[in-house]
Amino acid sequence: MRYSELSRRLAGASQKMLTQTLRSLEADGLVTRTVTPTVPVTVTYELTDLGLSLNHVIAGLKDWAETHMADVLAHREGHHREGHHRTGHHRTATEH
């Protein structure tokens, strides 16, 4: 996928963050980066076999997020409404 397409799809990510993340993924062997000497230069990224092996894990995480997002947002809203984000108090596992 071309860098410009990734940037469009990840509209909330800054160019700096996207570039750093792609460099890390390349260093980890999860993506390959190909530079084509066009004007302007075309840079594409593709998942490696190692990167593709994460597909089922990521799909599972996506499914979980889609199933539970309303609950997560409700808890977050309740947490903020109660003012926990300002107190600095962190509950332990035994506090409820």
Description:
- The structure is a single chain.
- The chain has 96 residues and is an alpha+beta fold.
- The protein has two domains: 1-48, Winged helix-like DNA-binding domain superfamily/Winged helix DNA-binding domain (Arc Repressor Mutant, subunit A), CATH 1.10.10; 54-96, no CATH class.
- The chain has helices at 3-9, 15-27, 49-52, 55-81, 84-87; strands at 31-36, 42-47.
- The longest helix has 27 residues, at 55-81.
- It starts with a helix and ends in a 9-residue tail after the last helix.
Write the layout of secondary structure elements.
Layout (H helix, E strand, L loop, with lengths): L2 H7 L5 H13 L3 E6 L5 E6 L1 H4 L2 H27 L2 H4 L9
Antiparallel strand pairs: 1-2
Short description:
With 96 residues, the protein is α+β, with helices and mostly antiparallel strands. Helices cover 57% and strands 12% of the residues. A hairpin with a 5-residue loop joins strand 1 and strand 2 (42-47).
Q: Tell me the distance between the termini.
A: 46 Å
Helix fraction by DSSP (H/I, runs of at least 4): 55-70%
Major sheet details: 2 strands, antiparallel
Radius of gyration: 19 Å
DSSP, total strands: 2
What is the name of the CATH superfamily of the largest domain? Answer: Winged helix-like DNA-binding domain superfamily/Winged helix DNA-binding domain
Structural class: alpha+beta
The CATH topology of the largest domain corresponds to Arc Repressor Mutant, subunit A
What is the H/E string?
A: HHEEHHH
Strand order of the largest sheet: 1-2
CATH structural class of the largest domain: Mainly Alpha
